[in-house]
């Protein structure tokens, strides 16, 4: 038995000659904000559409709470989707759009639920504004409100920040974090790792239809953290000097000969000066700095660009 809320196994989608998704296996646990990161055409939308039941896989399996999706009647009811443009009527207000959807879902007397949803996505003060006069961020928030109809357990958002200005990005980001706090598991795709890093708890990098890496937020931040890497004969001999002479508190002995120093105020030359004055020979010292985007580009073979 797996703890995963969603598990995909060897999922493949073939469009004639194009393999959009190739044998993808992933586990998404309850409460995660799972970031799917990939360049344009990497296969993000196709993978999310298969998980969301919009595209039928060529092969492979999708399990929801340990049951295969097509055997689980509740599967699609418990999943909210915002993939591509939601079917929003521009001449109607957010309230009217939600009302139409709820009628279509067979929900009677939806007034209270609509107000609660508008409040949740921050549109309650825009009741009289027609959607055609909405900002992109407001439209996305309405799209999320539509995806939230029926109180799903899992929300799938395909590039929800695409095309938004910084203010819109912040609004959508805050909404996603709030929904996650309320218990929703969220799967979100983007081609901008930097942006995903502000919200996601776990990541999968997809490239040419294949998952090339899955990594937790902690692991990713650790890999991208700025640090000085120091190599000496005996790491234990340099620790007292780092602590006392340079007041360095944030460091890690990674093996008997190597220390990583994370204090941002310390420079290489200060370390060299103090260790040399104590007759400690330095085999190597270097500053390691790799931004999130650089990390992503290197993984997808475009690090030199
Ligand atoms: N219905 C389809 N028929 C044929 N090819 C398709 C179809 N849908 C997607 N593809 C192809 O599959 C590949 C993956 O597309 P997909 O839309 O999943 O990528 P993506 O990572 O979401 O990219 P983008 O960010 O550009 O939407 C692309 O090469 C795309 O052209």
Descriptive labels:
305 residues, alpha/beta, Rossmann fold, Alpha-Beta Plaits, six-stranded mixed sheet, four-stranded antiparallel sheet, ABC_transporter-like_ATP-bd
Short characterization:
It holds the Pfam family ABC_tran. This is ABC transporter ATP-binding protein. The chain has about 300 residues and is an alpha/beta fold.
Explained architecture:
With 305 residues, the chain is of the alpha/beta class. It folds into two domains: 4-221, P-loop containing nucleotide triphosphate hydrolases (Rossmann fold, 3-Layer(aba) Sandwich); 227-288, 2-Layer Sandwich (Alpha-Beta Plaits). Helices cover 32% and strands 29% of the residues. It contains ten helices and 14 strands. The protein has helices at 44-51, 94-104, 111-120, 136-147, 166-181, 193-196, 217-224, 235-246, 268-277, 292-299; strands at 4-15, 18-29, 33-37, 59-64, 67-68, 79-82, 154-158, 185-190, 202-207, 210-216, 227-232, 251-255, 258-261, 282-288. The strands form three sheets. Strands 6-7-8-3-9-10 form a six-stranded mixed sheet, with helices on both faces. A four-stranded antiparallel sheet has the order 2-1-4-5, with helices on one face. It has a four-stranded antiparallel sheet with strand order 12-13-11-14. It is elongated and about 80 Å long. The model has no long low-confidence stretch (mean pLDDT 89). Adenosine-5'-triphosphate binds next to strand 2 and helix 1. The site of adenosine-5'-triphosphate has 12 residues, from strand 2 and helix 1. InterPro entries: AAA+_ATPase, ABC_transporter-like_ATP-bd, P-loop_NTPase. It holds the Pfam family ABC_tran. Keywords: ATP-binding, Nucleotide-binding, Transport. Residues 6-233 form the ABC transporter domain. GO terms for molecular function: ATP binding.
